[in-house]
Design brief:
104 residues, two-stranded antiparallel ribbon, 4 helices
């Protein structure tokens, strides 16, 4: 799983279990220790896209949480590939084209 999806998945689970105001440090996210540069880049991109929010915690360090106002967009990013409507439309169009060509 990509760092972006890993971060979103963990923050969404934390949001559902602990509530919307629960903050976590990016370094505590699974996989951050193995690939810190990729995960930090993903955190920065998610902050820029406003899918997550960054604040300082009690100790003055950066902490992030999922943006409660953008939960629908977060869930859309987390859904599996076969759940995307574009995939189904492309598959249906391909089948129609193939069977239409074979029938001719």
């Amino acid at each position: 799983m990509s760092p972006r999806k890993t971060i979103l998945r963990e923050l969404t689970l934390l949001h559902e279990e602990e509530g919307p105001d629960k903050l976590t440090r990016p370094a505590s996210i699974t996989g951050f220790a193995e690939k810190p540069a990729q995960y930090q880049k993903a955190v920065n991109q998610l902050l820029q896209d406003r899918l997550i929010e960054g604040r300082t915690d009690e100790e003055g360090r950066m902490a992030v949480s999922v943006n409660g106002h953008r939960l629908a967009d977060v869930r859309k990013e987390l859904r599996p590939p076969w759940a995307h409507p574009t995939l189904w439309l492309t598959a249906a169009a391909t089948l129609v084209a193939v069977f239409g060509w074979v029938a001719v």
